[in-house]
Amino acid sequence: MTLFYPFEMERYLETLLGSREPLLREMEEQALKETIPVVTPTVGNFLNLLVHTCKAQAVLEIGTAIGYSTIWLARATESTGGHVTTIDLNKDRLARAVVYFERAGLQNRVTALGGDARKILPTLKEKFDFVFIDAAKGEYLEYLNLIYPLIAPGGLLVVDNVLFRGWVVPGSDFAPKYDRMVGGLREFLQDLCQNPGFSTTVLPFGDGVSVSQKRGA
User: Is 2 part of a structural domain of the chain?
Assistant: First the structure.
């Protein structure tokens, strides 16, 4: 079975968003030019909406890239009074992201941490109301185990690329070099959806987005 990423649907959904700030459009063009993985505008808008909806104060992002999704998140914290902590291993991209934060006037809303999230997460003491993961797909399961104690009861965990071009669906055709990554994502989704500590749904837009709420008062 061959599944195709629904570019046409994504383009249509993007037209429904209306206008975006020029800086976001600039970042979209730059990411496309350099093949830097960033969320789609529809996913960015979804993240912004979720942060607004849950009135998140403490937001954590794993996987900054050049800061595109971070800006969507940080824009929402302007109304919630919150703050975003974002982590990325790539120092060059993180430095570029910091410049974008400054240009967006969000430098006081974002703290950027450089390094391996698997080493940084155990050092964090804060409880987060909202966590977004968009980093190395093969490390998602490790992130899940490390992030669970950092999420406040009732907090949201959102993860991007969980369907990865539709290949995570059993029976899909893809090159053998992706076997390990796809297998890892399948294992991650199984663990996440069966985790009694979360209530989870998976949404088939963008490249697949999971949304989980941590159980507890």
Answer: no
